Fold this protein.
Amino acid sequence: MRDPLSVLTEAFTSFVLGKVETTRLPVRTSTGQAQAVYLPTAAPGLGDSGVIIGREVYSGKGYVYDPFQLYGQQLPAPHWLVLGESGNGKSALEKTYVLRQLRFRDRQVVVLDAQGEDGVGEWNLIAQELGITPIRLDPMVANDSGIRLNPLDPAITTTGQLALLRTIIEVAMGHGLDERAGFALKVAHAHVNEHISERQPILTDIVERLRHPEAESAEAMNVDIDDVRAWGLDVALVLDRLVDGDLRGMFDGPTTVGIDLDAPLIVFDLSHIDRNSIAMPILMAIVGVWLEHTWIRPDRKKRIFLVEEAWHIINSPFVAQLFQRLLKFGRRLGLSFVAVVHHLSDVVDGAAAKEAAAILKMASTRTVYAQKADEARNTGRVLGLPRWAVEIIPTLTPGIAVWDVNGNVQVVKHLITEKERPLVYTDRAMTESSGPADPELEWETEQRALMMERHMNDSSQSTVA
């Protein structure tokens, strides 16, 4: 209840002066002064378990990312798409990410290195630092000294071998095999596997059997032997490129002894292959299936498969289908696929638009570096990025990117330590420098990385499968 004296005073004042409304005069100020009224806020991060990438631009917080730690609760799939124009830091991000992941004891990485200078791939320096010899596939190397991967390696299942042979042929021909050609290939492959046991079967054996099919294979289908030979002629001509043509010396013999599939880092150096030729998607197909059957194993290791120039995969329907299966299969065994592409239009407008959409859908993490305005709008539309993120993509400076981790969108500055810098900025990578070093930020990044390593060494057994 109000004080009677206050009521009486208010009534007398109103009678003498009339009712008076109290008003507050407006205050003019600047946005810099007005922001002090609001408490500082920042979007939630991704946790503190994993590898540090850098610093969130707006909040200043450290940005930590690890698909294996996030998988399940925050991340439906561990696969990652990296986009952006050349010269903005994609190369530096890939290399430091791999180096920092390898600090964990249960990590293993395979890199398809499609770029290089001075006769070696971009990853050659990192491989040397780690004591790794890259697997350099080069059709120009003399046949007796080159490294070979055998599509008919006994480590690959019979079904996998036949699927790989079909993929090689379909990629080279640009269309699927018809039933007759597929039958000729199947009977030739079955005959080779059945009758060659003292050594590894090789592609020459398949080509020879296609040219000279067995009579019983024709009799089984009640067709003429000359028909079976005609059906397999185009298939034989395609495989002959790998045996005695421009791709010879890489897949026309037993798998080279000594390839260490247990090394922490495996680098396939494809830098000597013409990136615009049909050879590149054929190589991608062979390496993909070979890895699927020889590398990915249920041994509780977390594996990262990083592919540069990934449009060679996504732009070919047959290779894209192969890798789509690999992604689905690998997710159950702890595989994170990292695809690096310059422009999204390279894949979504290509011949494999349907397959590309499926692969993009599996990539729950998307990192976008600077792009032109038109490309940024197209990227935002396809990936479903918020408007504010699309608007800033053309304004991003080297080393800064928009990160979308299953809807958690942040702007992140990638930080590189002094120890990493000589390995990251090779001659070519200097064009992707993110600017002069910031000693304070780099010291902080290194300290965080060291702390994270000690933390994970103590708790590596509890890593999320």
